[in-house]
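User: Here's a structure from my thesis project, written as structure tokens. My advisor, Dr. K., wants to see whether a designed sequence matches the one we expressed. Can you design one independently, without my sequence as a hint?
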């Protein structure tokens, strides 16, 4: 379950991972398990083919297996079936609920005002996406890591904001201003040719033309 949480893999992708797919600090995704046919199939789109970095917290927990072996398997070395996944998921939820209760008791987090919908394994994938947002990972990069066929799909998840994120944005802007220093020059340049990329201005000047003004 930690693999889903720290990589955003679809459960069907994690089931068929083999040792050869975990190499060089990355997890290579090029297949998924089809429960309806019980077969291993390629991703549904080109975006499904991707390499996901392995963070240290996950590297220490990943099983060490031979290149041809399944990373996650039952006692007979075969892929985990739905019953096995169900048992693993409920053990994970029970442990998470225990930690949550301890944190509420310690006052680390507030108690939930209302009961939340039941968690499902796919929620860990969405949590990974939200964590990417909170870490400041650009939307297009997150979309690639998630294996989404379009950025718009990622944007539906990448919409959570908090006061901390707004404060962080302000801090980054302040750091940028401190580095560049020439704020007045930036303003003058923006007023002269608003929203026109620098390379466009250079191209127009070489042709002896002045770029047209773009309204905001």
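Assistant: Designed independently from the structure alone:
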């Amino acid at each position: 379950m930690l693999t889903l949480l720290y990589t955003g893999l679809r459960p069907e992708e994690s089931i068929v991972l083999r040792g050869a797919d975990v190499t060089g600090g990355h997890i290579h995704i090029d297949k998924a398990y089809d429960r309806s046919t019980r077969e291993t199939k390629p991703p549904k789109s080109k975006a499904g083919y991707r390499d996901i970095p392995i963070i240290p917290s996950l590297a220490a927990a990943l099983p060490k297996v031979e290149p041809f072996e399944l990373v996650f398997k039952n006692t007979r070395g075969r892929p985990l079936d739905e019953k096995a996944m169900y048992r693993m998921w409920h053990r994970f939820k029970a442990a998470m609920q225990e930690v949550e209760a301890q944190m509420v008791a310690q006052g680390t987090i507030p108690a939930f005002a209302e009961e939340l919908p039941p968690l499902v394994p796919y929620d860990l994938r969405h949590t990974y996406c939200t964590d990417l947002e909170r870490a400041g990972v650009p939307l297009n990069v997150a979309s690639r890591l998630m294996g989404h066929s379009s950025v718009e799909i990622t944007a539906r998840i990448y919409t959570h904001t908090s006061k901390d994120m707004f404060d962080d944005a302000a801090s980054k802007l302040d750091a940028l201003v401190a580095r560049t220093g020439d704020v007045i020059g930036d303003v003058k340049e923006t007023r002269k040719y608003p929203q026109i990329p620098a390379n466009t201005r250079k191209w127009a000047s070489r042709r002896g033309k002045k770029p047209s003004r773009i309204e905001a």
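When you compare it with your expressed construct, this may help: Strands lie at 22-23, 26-29, 32-34, 39-41, 50-53.
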